[in-house]
Write a structure and sequence with these properties.
The structure is a homodimer.
Chain A: E1 8-9, E2 12-13, E3 20-25, E4 30-37, H1 41-58, H2 63-80, H3 82-92, H4 96-119, E5 126-128, E6 142-148, E7 152-155, H5 169-177, E8 181-184, H6 190-206, E9 214-217, H7 221-230, E10 236-240, H8 243-255, E11 262-265, E12 272-274, H9 276-281, H10 283-295, E13 307-311, H11 314-328, E14 333-334, H12 338-353, E15 358-361, E16 373-374, E17 377-382, H13 383-388, E18 400-406, H14 409-418, E19 422-428, H15 431-436, H16 439-447, E20 448-453, E21 492-498, E22 520-521
Parallel strand pairs in A: 5-22, 7-8, 7-10, 8-9, 10-11, 12-13, 12-19, 13-18, 17-18, 19-20
Antiparallel strand pairs in A: 1-2, 1-9, 3-4, 5-6, 6-21, 14-16, 15-17
Chain lengths: 522, 522
């Protein structure tokens, strides 16, 4: 399949425009052919209008039909095979094993959501049947369920070119809910985006989905992206990326004549709390696990453990020494793109220059971006310095870890209280530790979306119970998750039908429960 | 119980302040004793700090304990008896039957939420147990459920002095979820608010709830209300009232360092679509039902049918004539307060003076506010005029109805497309009508939270399936409902626990399902 570099509008391609970009291989800094043409205003409006018209049709497709579409997308992605792996590796610098693993995660996710909607119980169907003889007033027949919101715009992430990108969790859950999707491709992997988009296009045609159920636009976030979020046809936004990018979209969405929900996952420092007895019992395994978690994917995960809170004592020192040894022995690896590479270099330079911070592993790599090498870095500071200098709590996206040394429980509690909203919070603790430090759990629960015990935050399982969310600024909406089947509810709203004729009700709400789903009936 | 006029901060009362207001009897325009002292900044901060500290304790109370609290609030409200009825009637101009009925609705709602949380299945408990042998990577044990958001501020509504006020749906669902509540009392019925708040205070003491689980503040929306929404301790807002009031709170909440959700129910015109065959078959019953729905509670309901779409034909004319007759014979009644009365008079004056609108029933009442009499009004306009003049789609809170006459299906569809988000949409249709006009259902479904067939929108059942919501500007968040048991989810967020020791899990997530609730287990 030849990559064409043109935006995809439903079953068609947009014309070439006057401006274009090329993908860049971060391992060499050189451009990759072909050019990708930026979508013009007319193309943006065309995609939005098409999605709006299609919504009426797509939202009425049965769950079985939508499930067949999702399953076919997974098949079509698998059918691309080697060209997808090659292109994705070239555009992201990620190794083959990771790209193949992530492809599996992506197709697995599509099939999980297909089975979710095939089952139908996700839709929160509730029925209160009429009570015509109730006094003083009869009760009407009322039935409600989750229905799709409308066309959704998805901003692809750079750090998961497949699982959080064109056919990633946001797209999959929106399509599953019954919403047409327009993806704003990430400029870091446009070729990968096009390959996946064509797979979705093929699957839509093959399973009889309406034209416009899916579009992919190339172009800048500040032009194409902002225009999409401001467009009246759009009813919700999914985003994974920087705090600056996410909050900019939140502002645009809030200022619309009709404000719409933005689900922005903006990352966090994912504090790890190491309690004393656990440390003394498991120096080697904690140092090892932390090292793997901190350097996995060159640290380019939203759940990367950026801040580790360790007691200032001999056992803590021993752990720090082992961790530093391992980080020192880690080879620098290619990061995703020049923007991320430069931000990482700037971030660690700032810490190196902060006189309240000790540099244990410098992490200094090459200054130019060819290649974009990221070297593991370790910094150490005291809890009191960390509490005084707010900049130390900022996320540095990449394989850098800041160790914060606390003296006593009061200092540890103050440290935890100082954190803003986080995706995860991790505790390593023995039973004795949990008894001695029981107060920290309630603080952590107020701050995070997922609490991890005696393990590490990276590796987000795609399952029914997963919560990949957390209070602002980890996400724009701490009530939601962008991973796992709960993610579908972001793109729905409840609708009630009062005294509706049976024939006009969605199957989920009909008498006799023809779909055999779990419902709440009274 | 003597009404004291002082804000209630947990188990205590705030001191008297320099400024105060008195309630006004809308049937006479005269003041009612005693004065109610406006909360000062210090009092606001005190209530917020207390709620914040209390959250840690209250959120850990078992569902059984919270249910006992809610049930006891219902008991304590019933125990007030006659003084509550007398005071509420005096402050609102509503008749005894309505106040007694609304008290029953309020206590019924408290007991419904008590049974909801006692059952426990509402909490969305999900469990994915560990798969240590899974290849290539083991699956950890992950469990998640809905947990309370934090302290909630509730703005009481004027039009339901009990069911949407101090112990109304917002307060009840937030307390049920595990969130402390601070109510900003409505200045239209401060005495009623205090009586109810003292009942909550007593119930909290009697059932061993922590100090600060509930507070009631007197004062202006622009001072006390804004300060509460901006306060960092507050994590969500419930509001029922005007669009101006609701959107002002949305703005404050969005501009916070940590933006928080605002659930503002701002009302709508609740379009009623009358299709031709249904009209010809049921002139008398439709005219009668519409008249009751339009004038119930002097039209002061969010679900009041403000705009009725009727075909321009002889059958439609016959219906209009019967409806006008009934509205003409309706005695003017006392409205809730001078602000609402003046807004209603201004609204109908604007329609009277609009040369595209025919005044069928003038609705003119007294110009001053002693008493605040609201007379039923009926206006008529064409679909094309309605489409040209956006002002005709504005809500006029009170017993005024605008009849919009359409010529054909295209015009009706254009009419429906022109509506902004609405709480409800009503259709009167025979089977033949539904066949002839099938396209309107999809349009309506995009616009409203509840579709009503062959009935009327007023009368919102408090039950599991109710959706009292709808796209902006009907509400600030069309994904939610402020009536029915779904309302509880507004004040929660999902939290996941990974590899947690059993003893640290909420009971809802423990092995063996000790609470016997409905869970999703994999």
């Amino acid at each position: 399949m030849k990559i064409q570099g043109r935006s995809i509008i439903g079953f068609n391609s947009a014309p070439q425009s006057d401006t274009s970009i090329k993908a860049i291989d971060p391992s060499t800094g050189s451009e990759i052919e072909p050019p990708f043409y930026n979508a013009e205003t007319e193309t943006v409006n065309q995609a939005a209008a098409l999605a709006s018209g299609t919504f009426q049709i797509y939202s009425k497709k049965s769950s079985q039909e939508r499930a067949a579409f999702l399953n076919e997308i997974a098949n079509q992605i698998e059918a691309i095979g080697e060209p997808l792996v090659t292109r994705a590796m070239q555009e992201t610098g990620l190794p083959e094993g990771r790209i193949k693993g992530e492809t599996g995660r992506t197709t697995g996710q599509l099939r999980l959501f297909a089975s979710l909607i095939e089952d139908g119980s996700w839709s929160q169907a509730r029925i209160d049947t009429a009570l015509p003889d109730r006094a003083p007033l009869p009760r009407p027949d009322i039935r409600s369920m989750s229905r799709p919101l409308g066309p959704v715009v998805v901003f692809a992430a750079s750090n998961f070119p497949l699982a959080f990108s064109t056919a990633g969790g946001d797209t999959t859950s929106a399509l599953a809910a019954g919403c047409p999707v327009i993806v704003k491709a990430h400029s870091s992997h446009p070729g990968t985006a096009e390959l996946i988009a064509r797979a979705i296009q093929k699957a839509a045609e093959k399973t009889g989905m309406p034209d416009g159920v899916f579009s992919l636009l190339f172009g800048g976030g500040r032009t194409v992206g902002s225009a999409l979020v401001a467009h009246p046809a759009i009813k919700a936004v999914g985003f994974t990326g920087s705090t600056a990018g996410g909050t900019a979209l939140m502002e645009i969405a809030a200022k619309r004549a009709e404000p719409i929900p933005v689900y922005a996952e903006m990352g966090s420092v994912n504090p790890v709390v190491l309690l004393p007895e656990a440390v003394s019992q498991n120096v080697e395994s904690i140092a090892n696990g932390l090292h793997i978690s901190a350097t996995l994917g060159v640290g380019q995960f939203c759940t990367n453990p950026g801040v580790v809170c360790i007691k200032k004592d001999a056992r803590g020192d021993a752990l720090v020494n082992r961790f530093v040894e391992k980080m020192n022995n880690t080879a620098a690896q290619v990061m995703l793109n020049a923007t991320i590479h430069r931000a990482y270099c700037d971030g660690i330079t700032q810490l190196q220059e902060n006189d309240k911070v000790a540099t244990l592993v410098s992490g200094s790599g090459n200054d130019d971006d060819s290649p974009c090498l990221g070297a593991a870095a370790v910094f150490e500071t005291s809890a009191s310095s960390f509490l005084q200098d707010e900049s130390l709590s900022h996320e540095i996206f990449g394989p850098g870890t800041t160790l914060v040394r606390w003296q006593n429980k009061e200092e540890l509690l103050a440290l935890l209280e100082s954190f803003q909203g986080q995706l995860t919070g991790t505790i390593h603790a023995s039973e004795t530790d949990l008894g001695n430090y029981s107060e920290i759990l309630a603080v952590l629960e107020r701050k995070v979306g997922r609490i991890v015990y005696n393990s590490f935050p990276t590796g987000v399982e795609v399952c029914h119970s997963m919560v990949h969310g957390g209070p602002f600024p980890a996400t724009s909406d701490g009530r939601s998750t962008s991973v796992g089947t709960h993610a579908i509810s972001r793109f729905t709203r409840l609708i009630a039908y009062q005294d509706s004729p049976q024939s006009l009700l969605p199957d989920e709400l009909k008498d006799g429960n023809p779909l055999g789903i779990v419902r709440l009936e009274n």
